[in-house]
Amino acid sequence: MIDFTSGLTIAARCVDGVYDVLITGLPEAPSRALSRELGIQAGDQEEPFTSVWTVGTQRDTAFSRIPAVVARDLAKGGKLQVIVPATSKSPRTRYVMELNPSSTAIEQTLTACGRPMVDPREARSDEIEGNGQDGLPSSVSWQTLPRPTFPDSVNGRSPTEGYVVLSCVVDALGGLNECQTESEQPAGYNLGRSVERSLPRARIKLTDEAAATGTPLAGLMIRFSVIFKMER
């Protein structure tokens, strides 16, 4: 955990096998917003990486939907920038801070949750698409949808809605391989495991626009979300 004089606090943690990166002290998210975008630029990155974060119970708190990806960037140290896009009630805000290299501390939290400091899938992939947004990244669409089911209740309780963010490597036929759950909400109900079990039969295809630009399907790594909602 790191506290900055700007009022921001950034924490990375592994609790019961669930990995989180969260930021507190942000300008409050718009009322009723469940998610928000934040840009993170650290170390020698030339451009900020903008990803989707889930708004916490306290609306100045946000949880990364792809926490391991963000944690690896934070481990680089150096100048850290956190960019909060403008909303109807607040202007664009940019925080600039110095971040001491903290690869050892970050690595300990990643290792505790079975996450590597360097994701070998990223090193092998020709392209990486997706930032934790709802659904698929814009370059692909479903050819065959995954069909996960709500898992059994835990201690007599079961969520009525939630989401899972996953990352997979796509093969030439659109199959999803080497899939990993990046985050799930609410935690503790095996939503991620339910989605992972449904992925062997799912298939991805390029959108017409992506195919026209020559984007390869084989070797593409995608990050995507699956939304759960119980019908009443």
Structure description:
This protein is an alpha+beta fold and 232 residues long. The protein is 16% helix and 38% strand. It has five helices and 14 strands. Strands 1-2-3-6-5-4-7-8 form an eight-stranded antiparallel sheet, with helices on one face. A hairpin with a 2-residue loop joins strand 2 and strand 3. Helix 1 runs antiparallel to helix 2.
The strand count comes to 14
Report the portion of residues in β strands: 35-45%
The structure class reads alpha+beta
User: How large, in whole angstroms, is the Cα Rg?
Assistant: 18 Å
The strands making up the biggest β-sheet line up spatially as 1-2-3-6-5-4-7-8
SSE run: EEEEEEHEEHHEEEEHEHE
Whole-Å distance between the termini? 40 Å
The number of helical segments is 5
Largest sheet features: 8 strands, antiparallel
Mean residue pLDDT: 91
Write the layout of secondary structure elements.
Layout: E1 2-3, E2 9-15, E3 18-24, E4 35-41, E5 49-55, E6 62-64, H1 67-74, E7 78-84, E8 93-99, H2 103-112, H3 120-124, E9 127-129, E10 140-144, E11 161-170, E12 176-185, H4 191-198, E13 203-206, H5 208-212, E14 220-229
Parallel strand pairs: 9-14
Antiparallel strand pairs: 1-2, 2-3, 3-6, 4-5, 4-7, 5-6, 7-8, 10-13, 11-12, 11-14
Helix pairs in contact: 1-2
